[in-house]
Amino acid sequence: MTEITKLPVSIERFVLHWGEMGGFWGVNRSVAQIHAFLMTADRPVTAENVAVALEMARSNVSTSLKELQSWNLIRRVPIRGDRRDHFEAETDVWEVASRIAAGRKAKEIDPALETLRVCVAEAETDPTVHPVALKRLKEMLEFTETLDRWYGQITTVARPKLMALLKLGARIAALIPGGK
C-alpha cells in the first residue's frame, strides 16, 4: 500500500479550514482535521498514515479517531492481508450533517431541555424568583422545546424535499401568514 506523504494544496487548505471550523463548533481542531482528511481520502487510511500526513502525534490521532467513531462519522474497515486498522469517513454530506445534528442535539439540546424544565418548575414554586426571571426562563424553555420539535419533524422529511426547502430559503417565509 502506498503511504501518504504530502497532501495536495487544496486538500491541505480544506483540512486546515475544517479544523478551524471545528473549533467554532466546540470540536477539537485535530478531530476536525482528521475528519476532513478522511472525508477526502480515496481509500481507507491507517492511523499511521493520518499521523504522518497531518504531522500529528500518534496518540492524538488515536484519541481523535475514537471520538470520530463515537459520533459515527468514521468507521474501521478491514483490509485483506493487513492487520492494521484502516479508517474511512462517511462521505454522504447529508448523512454527515444528520449525524452531527443528532450528536449535538443529544449533547446540547436534550440536557438544556431537562435543565430548563427543572428550573421553571422550581422557579414557579419559589416566591423569591422575580416574575421577570420566571417569564424569561419560560420563554427560553418554549424556544428550546420548539427547536426540539422542529428537529424531530425535520428528520422525517425526505432528502429531496429537504433540499428543496433549503433552496427556497427565506422565500418559504412568504407562504406563512402574518409576516413580510
Automatic annotation (TrEMBL):
<dbReference type="InterPro" id="IPR036390">
    <property type="entry name" value="WH_DNA-bd_sf"/>
</dbReference>
<comment type="similarity">
    <text>Belongs to the GbsR family.</text>
</comment>
<dbReference type="GO" id="GO:0003677">
    <property type="term" value="F:DNA binding"/>
</dbReference>
<keyword id="KW-0805">Transcription regulation</keyword>
<dbReference type="Pfam" id="PF12802">
    <property type="entry name" value="MarR_2"/>
</dbReference>
<feature type="domain" description="HTH marR-type">
    <location>
        <begin position="26"/>
        <end position="84"/>
    </location>
</feature>
<dbReference type="InterPro" id="IPR000835">
    <property type="entry name" value="HTH_MarR-typ"/>
</dbReference>
<keyword id="KW-0804">Transcription</keyword>
<dbReference type="InterPro" id="IPR052362">
    <property type="entry name" value="HTH-GbsR_regulator"/>
</dbReference>
<protein>
    <recommendedName>
        <fullName>HTH-type transcriptional regulator</fullName>
    </recommendedName>
</protein>
<keyword id="KW-0238">DNA-binding</keyword>
<dbReference type="GO" id="GO:0003700">
    <property type="term" value="F:DNA-binding transcription factor activity"/>
</dbReference>
<dbReference type="InterPro" id="IPR036388">
    <property type="entry name" value="WH-like_DNA-bd_sf"/>
</dbReference>
<dbReference type="InterPro" id="IPR026282">
    <property type="entry name" value="MJ1563"/>
</dbReference>
